Amino acid sequence: MLAVEVGKASHVGRIRRANEDALFVGSRLFVVADGMGGHAAGAIASRTALEVLAGLDRAPVTCDALRSQVVEANRAVVAYGRTHPEGLGLGTTLAGIALIAEDEEEHWAVFHVGDSRVYEVRDSVVRQLTVDHSEVQELISAGLLTLEEAREHPSRHIVTRAIGEWPTPALDLLVVPAVVGQRWLITSDGLTSEVTDDLISAALIGGNSATETAVELVRAALAAGGRDNITVVVVDVLTSMATAEATQSSTLRRSQSEVSS
Prior knowledge:
- By secondary structure, this protein is of the alpha+beta class.
- Helix content is 30%, strand content 31%.
- It has a 6-stranded mixed β-sheet with strand order 8-7-10-11-1-12. Strands 2, 3, 4, 5, 6 and 9 form a 6-stranded antiparallel β-sheet that branches.
- The relative contact order is 0.23.
- It comes from Nostocoides jenkinsii Ben 74.
- This is Protein phosphatase.
- Residues 5-237 form the PPM-type phosphatase domain.
- GO terms for molecular function: protein serine/threonine phosphatase activity.
């Protein structure tokens, strides 16, 4: 297994009264969920989904196991909505990375449902590896809307796929080699709807630690308006397990920040 360092930060934002985002940081699984639904149902949906997915962190992960666990997470969210009328219509996005073994080499499975995103940084090049499942993304892809226009479009928060639908929505999954020196950003749209990709890239390659970068990104979203909950997880791939054991470093170093306004 790779050794990683993780920074995470979350904020309710300047407009919302409750934080319906949730995150999970394990040893091989890292996920952000952005809940939706009235009467605090969004927070229940995001937490419920992550509680189910957390089971993947206790055993070797395969792509098939990941897909199956997402189906179980969806079933749990749907079941809550059916038995709690106040939670009718609840749902959540998911975005994350899971360490898998493929062809005897370590890879990351990058997965998502909805408009939470995953970015990879390798050799100082930042790439967005997920494509939003959203109405504005469909308009962008059709050439009817620019990225700048999408930030202020009235449909910018409408997703076309979410956990909490039946049948389970399709999970987008991409397998990427695990490389020492890699950096990952997993984030809810509270960041990406406020901060441009250029500013996100500058923060990611700015040389700060994972925690410092997570805090910097959340503060940037707050400074830009903070109209939504903001949650950020930054994962730095430090070294291989063999090297980590030789240097007596820990397999996982993690830290958390609740960013103050």
